[in-house]
Structure formats: C-alpha cells, structure tokens
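lol ok so funny story. i was supposed to be doing the assay writeup but got distracted and ended up predicting the structure for this chain instead. priorities right. anyway since i did it might as well share w the group, maybe its usefull for someone
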Amino acid sequence: MGAGVLGSAVGMDKDAMKRLLRDAGIPIAKFITVRDVEASRLDFKKVVREIGLPLFIKPANLGSSVGIHKVKRAKEFLPAVRDAFRYDRKILMEECVTGRELECSVLGNDNPVASVPGEVIPKHEFYSYEAKYLDPEGARLEMPARLPPRVAKKIRELAVRTFRTLYLEGMARVDFFLRKNGDVLVNEVNTIPGFTNISMYPKMWEASGVSQAKLVDKLIALALERFKKERRLKTSFG
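and the output, tada:
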C-alpha cells in the first residue's frame, strides 16, 4: 500500500531526497552532506559560512528524530557530529529554519491528491524524540492548520509535486516549514507514516472528509490497481 523499492529508499535517504527535490526546483533548506571518511576535515567556521548558525546535524538514514542535534555554538559541533555518525556513515548539516512546522498527507498512484495541511506545535525547542514519544505534552497537533487559503493551496501543490518527484506511490506524509515571510520549504517525507487514531496522516484525511475506514479502503484499492498494472509487464524474455 506504500512506495516501491526506489521511492522507499529515496524517502529514507535524506541526502538523496534533498538532491532530487533541489534538482526539481522544489524549495528546501540549505544543507551539507558529510561522509565518515570526510569527518576529520570538517571545518566548523566553513560550515557556518555556508548554512549559518544555529544548525541541525542528523544521520542521513534514520527517523523519529534519533541522533539529531541543534548546534548553537562551536563547542557543541564535534560532539553532535560524533553522535550522528554513531547511526550512519553519512550525515546531514542543515540550516535552522525559523517558522511553523506543517504536514500534508498525500494519497494516490498516478494521480495523487493532497489533504488539508496540519500543524505540529512543539513545546520543546524542536520536535525531538523526547517531544514525540516520551513527553505526552511534547507537542500540540492542529488539524486543519490555520493558514491563509493561498498558503494552504501552495502546500498541497508542493506536497503532490514532492510525491511525484520522489517516485512515491500509495501514501506518504510530506513535512514542511513555513517561514514568517511566507516562504514554504519542504523538510522531508515519510513513506510509512503513523496510522493510529491520533497519527497526523489519517487525522489530516479525516479533516479533509475521509474517514479512517474509507482511507484504508482507498489504500487497498490503490495497491490492487498497481498490482494489476504490474502483472501486465513482461518479466521474462524468450
């Protein structure tokens, strides 16, 4: 019911994901990718010149905000780098975007559609692992997000463009930042979003008029549709 091998891999690897989005002209935050073999050559001042301060450091292939650090000063830089490299051989250093955290659910195969956007309002400094899972009051969710119609429309359009650019199918949640000046940036995608009664993906569809039961029906229908199309392809020659 979700993305295939390519879409799933691209959605997991934040470096590959951001490169594809950037090449497609989809707005993203500034970022630098660093591999473990390059770690000894890292220059804090050079990184700050490129993406500013504060900045975020995170593993390229991980979720749930594990291994993520917000770096505000030089003495925090190397410990954050070392911790991120505990989880992956490739890490990202990203511009810290000041603004609202918004999300949008996408559903479909060849003709995807987007839900109304929702908003995550963290009570911690950022939406960390603790805020997501350990603190029951770590964040407040608002569905639909309180947005001007033109901004909500832009987010939905960008969500669909992102879905198509990353070769996604079935379902995905696209996460955004909204700057105070009105600029919308794509942060990342989740190809297997949470699906509990309180998860953002079904909640945003519920706010769009699609119940969770109907949503499951649609996802099953999309999976069957894709299966039928793929069955028509030749898998042998001769």
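The domain at 31-95 is CATH 3.30.1490.20 (Dna Ligase; domain 1). The beta strands are 31-35, 55-59, 69-71, 90-95, 99-108, 113-114, 118-122, 139-142, 170-179, 184-190.
back to the writeup now i swear
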